[in-house]
Amino acid sequence: MDMKEQIAAALDVSGADPKTLPALTLAYLGDTIYDLYARTLLAFGVDGTVHALHLESTKLVCAKGQAEAFFRILPMLDEEELAAFRRGRNAHSATVPKNANVQDYRTATGFEALLGYLYCLGRDARIGELMNKALRKE
Predict the structure, then answer these.
(1) Tell me: the pLDDT tens digits for 11-37?
(2) What does pTM read for this prediction?
(3) How far apart are CA 50 and CA 56, in angstroms?
(4) How far apart (Å, rounded) are the C-alpha atoms in residues 125 and 49?
(5) Residue 122: which region, alpha, beta or left (left: phi > 0; alpha: psi -120 to 50)?
(6) Mean pLDDT, all residues of the chain
(7) Which residues are catalytic?
(8) Is 3 part of a structural domain of the chain?
(9) Is the residue at 26 inside a domain?
């Protein structure tokens, strides 16, 4: 098996059942997904230096920014998606960042868990639909 095949095999999560994965593991995956979408939006939508892009991304990719984004998509979610969100929101995390309030942090963790859940199910189109709404403030 060559390197490309090994990477493809490692990224194949089609056999994973996200209901059996720990909620914080789903949030770990979802954090990366959220970050990728936010940075992609900025890279193609904001003129400026990489430093300026970074400064803008820190406003989106933080507990407060993610909590605000979650509430923009909340009306779009079905019961299964809400259950995945609640699992992440209610997961016990050992720490809360000092620059985030607990409610925003838990909401952000729930949102990340939802994204990780959808990713494990291979629902990329649904992730795109939710992220398009989540990251646009209008």
Answers:
(1) 676 667 888 899 999 999 999 999 999
(2) 0.87
(3) 10
(4) 30
(5) left
(6) 89
(7) 31
(8) no
(9) yes
